[in-house]
Write a structure and sequence with these properties.
alpha/beta; Rossmann fold; Nucleotidyltransferase, domain 5; 5 domains; six-stranded mixed sheet; 32 helices
């Protein structure tokens, strides 16, 4: 069996991954989605092809011989988005870390290098696979050279495969004749001119009939239609230039070493560390634990399940300055408690026998009198343990959030990786999968216990570094005086709840549902078809493609349907048409329903101890009855807390000028202290609602 070499068009695959997958960023704020997508595509192809050799080709920024031949070559291309540009050196760093060969050559494009290595390898009797999103490479296809073109849609990638037969079947021409097609029809993406008036259909007929532009020119009188004949006659020089530009150089002066391209194990420790830094969690599972042992800490867990042992353990814990805790429980039942004294004493205490949930939670409450309890999520602990002093607890999740509020996850494994020197710990999914806590307690107690231990271990070990970083970033005061006390406030609010007239709320919801259905049908009638109105992508297609409305602005994910775009479209079609308020200002047809909802709540507002109005601004300006009701409430005795824009709008000026209104402007200087000040001011007005 022949040896195989896999050749990858670096920029092409990176670009395809960037536009085909959601944007990702790591904790450092670096864009990583294209790199992640590139690696997934590469590994998939490697698993399928199992090549002995692998190399990735990248373009350089320097002009190539094609630019020297035709200055406008690729002159119409838009600049690479900055989010993608910053990932080019990142993917090169990753490939180097994996020991994967990279090739570039000044004056030549990646296509030329791929073509050169493909022909050399084919001549050596090797099988060649080229991975690229560029169909220009189809000209290189032979019975020994396979061109694979990935296509990514909504995160799912499919692959089109082309040897000579597949190219001929789809395009009706041989692979080398792809060049002839480009010579006639041009290529707008590369700004290859072609000849005027000849598109793909006509170009294909000409190449099928004559084989080449030279032969077509020699038999010019046989060329049809007349428009194509005259264009070829007049612009034959352009066709020759276009053919030259479209032809991949398969004999570039590239120094290539098969030894360097030989596939070794890409899952190196260096690559592992880089994947950790980029937060490619799923990618980390590919690495051999033996390779990554240096990045992990061996942890030994102990089970304590007898009463005397637990009593002694809590007595010992009370002598510590801090302990890590976790309480794994449903709303009404505790299953397991985790307790960490230090990195060598890590315990799980399963509920059973005399070790009831109430007993263990009572021991944790008592423990808080003598030491600091460190947990991943204190609010979840408060549901079972009655604590009342924020100074006696540490919340690792809240601390991590304040240090980087842009992350989507603050789980124990994330925090360990970021703040415990890259320590790799199994996630909740790794330990329990989709198993519920109750089922794990009944059937997989060891896994549940391990999870409890990790949940207690990480906050205990990470407390020191997290507090140091809060100090460094100036967020310690926010943590101590706002966020952590707020945890206790939110817990109290959740326990007491709020009074709701359930039946009235349900009835109003049904009315809104009917109204929404009516509006949907009206919109579908205007559009001439049914579509998902909540989908910006589908709405964009309806407005800008089907209805042909002007001003369509295409983004990475489709047409923009932002409010400012729809505002401009309002006069052009009933789907986005606005009505007029009493001042002639535009009002969306949905606004009357919104106003009714607002008035419904405001009608009963005076019966409550406090009214909160959030983000008063442009929308309310278009609701005359709502505005009037708010001004009426200002004349009453019920205290009101409101947030409003600084815009000089009519009704906002009425509020600002009201004799009972005290206006506080939020600034950089006072923003951190304001929540506590407001909480203290309004606290006397807020009374818990007791169950009847």
């Amino acid at each position: 069996m022949s040896e195989k070499i896999l050749l990858i068009d670096g920029h092409s695959i990176l670009n395809r991954a960037f536009y085909g997958l959601p944007d990702l960023t790591n904790a450092e704020g670096r864009h990583t989605g294209a790199v992640y997508g590139f690696l997934n595509i590469m590994f998939r192809i490697m698993e399928e092809e199992k090549p002995e050799y692998l190399t990735v080709a990248f373009d350089l920024s320097a002009p190539t011989f094609r630019h020297k031949r035709y200055e406008a070559y690729k002159g119409t291309r838009k600049p690479m988005p900055e989010e993608l540009r910053e990932q080019v050196p990142l993917i090169k760093e990753m490939l180097s870390a994996m020991g994967i060969n990279i090739m570039s050559l000044e004056g030549y494009e990646a296509d030329d290098l791929l073509g050169t290595v493909a022909r050399r390898s084919e001549a050596k009797g090797m099988d060649v696979t080229i991975l690229s999103g560029d169909r220009d490479l189809l000209q290189l296809a032979t019975d020994k050279v396979l061109i694979r073109l990935p296509k990514t849609v909504r995160g799912k990638t499919t692959i089109e495969n082309y040897h000579t037969a597949e190219v001929l079947e789809k395009y009706q021409v041989t692979p080398p004749q792809i060049i002839e097609l480009k010579a006639l029809m041009g290529d707008s993406s590369d700004n290859i001119p072609g000849i005027p008036g000849v598109g793909e259909k006509t170009a294909t007929k000409m190449v099928v009939q004559f084989g080449s532009i030279e032969n077509a020119h020699e038999h010019l009188e046989e060329v049809k239609p007349n428009k194509a004949k005259e264009s070829l006659r007049e612009h034959y020089d352009l066709a020759q230039l276009s053919k030259e530009l479209a032809t991949i150089n398969t004999d570039s002066p590239l120094e290539f070493s098969y030894e360097k391209a030989k596939v070794e194990n890409p899952y190196t420790l260096e690559a592992y560390e880089l994947c950790k830094r980029l937060e490619f969690k799923n990618m980390l599972n590919r690495f051999d634990p033996a390779t990554t042992a240096d990045s992990s800490m061996e942890l030994e867990f102990f089970t304590c399940n007898d009463l005397s042992g637990v009593e002694a353990l809590f007595e010992k814990a009370a002598q510590k300055d801090q302990v890590g805790i976790s309480v794994l429980a449903d709303l009404d039942q505790v299953y397991t408690v985790g307790l960490v004294l230090d990195e060598k004493e890590i315990y799980q205490i399963p509920v059973g026998g005399l070790l009831t949930g109430d007993y263990l939670c009572g021991k944790l409450k008592t423990l808080a009198d003598s030491t600091v309890l460190c947990a991943m999520d204190i609010k979840s602990v408060l549901k079972h343990v009655s604590l009342d002093d924020p100074k006696k607890v540490f919340d690792a999740g809240v601390a991590a959030y304040l240090l980087n509020p842009l992350k989507s996850s603050y789980s124990h494994d994330d925090i360990a990786r970021e703040y415990l020197d890259g320590m790799m710990l199994p996630s909740k999914e790794d330990l329990l999968g989709k198993t519920s806590l109750k089922k794990a307690w009944e059937e997989e107690l060891e896994c549940l216990g391990n999870y409890a231990c990790y949940q207690a271990f990480v906050p205990c070990m990470a407390r020191k570094v997290l507090l140091e970083k809060l100090d460094e970033t100036g967020m310690r005061k926010v943590y101590d005086e706002i966020e952590l006390p707020l945890v206790f406030t939110l817990d109290s609010m959740e326990k007491w709840g709020i009074s709701v007239k359930g039946e009235e709320l349900k009835n109003y919801g049904e009315k809104l549902k009917v109204r929404i259905q009516e509006l949907e049908k009206t919109i579908w009638q205007e559009a001439g078809e049914e579509f998902n109105i909540n989908s910006p992508k589908q709405l964009g297609v309806i407005l800008f493609e089907k209805l042909g409305l002007p001003g369509g602005k295409k983004t990475k994910t489709g047409y923009s349907t932002a409010a400012d775009i729809l505002d401009k479209l309002a006069p052009d079609h009933a789907i986005v048409k606005f009505g007029q308020d009493e001042n002639g200002a535009p009002v969306r047809t949905i606004l009357p329903s919104f106003e009714e909802l607002g008035l419904q709540y405001l009608s009963e507002a005076s019966s409550y101890p406090l009214i909160v109005l959030d983000e008063c601004g442009r929308l309310e300006q278009k609701l005359p009855r709502f505005r009037a009701r708010v001004l009426e409430l200002l004349d009453g005795d019920t205290p009101i807390l409101g947030v409003m824009r600084q815009d000089a709008m009519g009704w906002l000026e009425d509020i600002r000028n009201h004799p009972k209104v005290q206006l506080i402007t939020v600034t950089e200087q006072n923003r951190n202290d304001l929540p506590l000040q407001l909480a203290e001011y309004y606290a006397p007005f807020i009374k818990p609602i007791k169950e009847e």
